[in-house]
Each structure stands twice: as C-alpha cells, then as structure tokens.
Amino acid sequence: MATDFPSDLLTARRDLDAAYAALAALSRTLPWSVEPDANGISPTGHGPHDIARPSTTGYTEQEAAEVARFRADVMRLATLVTGHAYWSSLSGPELVEARMGLISAAKVPARLPDVAA
Q1: Are 16 and 78 in contact (CB under 8 A)?
Q2: Count of H-run helices and E-run strands, the chain
C-alpha cells in the first residue's frame, strides 16, 4: 500500500476531514429545517424513520452563510484531494488501495520535525 503521500495531499485530506467535522458539528446545533415551518411535522405511523419535528423558525442569515461557507470548504478540499496529480501515477487496485490508505494516513497526527539539541 502506498504510504508516502505528497505532503500537500496529506494536508488537504486532513483539512477536508476537519472541515467536514466542523460542518457536522455546526449542523447538530441548527434547526431541523433551513426554511421556517410553523406547523412542524407530525408522525404518520409509517416507517422506521417517521419522527415528529417541532415548528421551527429556520436558519438565520448568519447560520445559512456559515453552512454555505463550510460546504464550500468541503467541496473545494474534496476536489483538491480527488483531483490531485498523485493519483495519475496509480491505477487499478493500487489506486483503490492508495485512496483508502490516504484516509488512514490522514488520521495519524503529523510528525513534528526533529529538533537538534
């Protein structure tokens, strides 16, 4: 498996993970609907995901702008990672293995440079 990824690719993948985590964390604090809904949603009794939703005022302009910014960051970074020139040197199973390896490698904290005493 490829383990020596270009530093800019590894950094972009780490930044992508961080941006996605920030978007997910923000999303957990927001109302369930972007748009106001005075009535909410009543369960119908059909299906396992049939849950009630209370009325909501929707997102504020600031919340909507913040979500849009995070989504743009995630898209930009995902495009940077998937379109990186490194991938053109691989093909077939080696490419798949390397892409999966990048996910794991990005979870390992970056090594700090050795400092001479």
Answers
A1: yes
A2: 3, 0
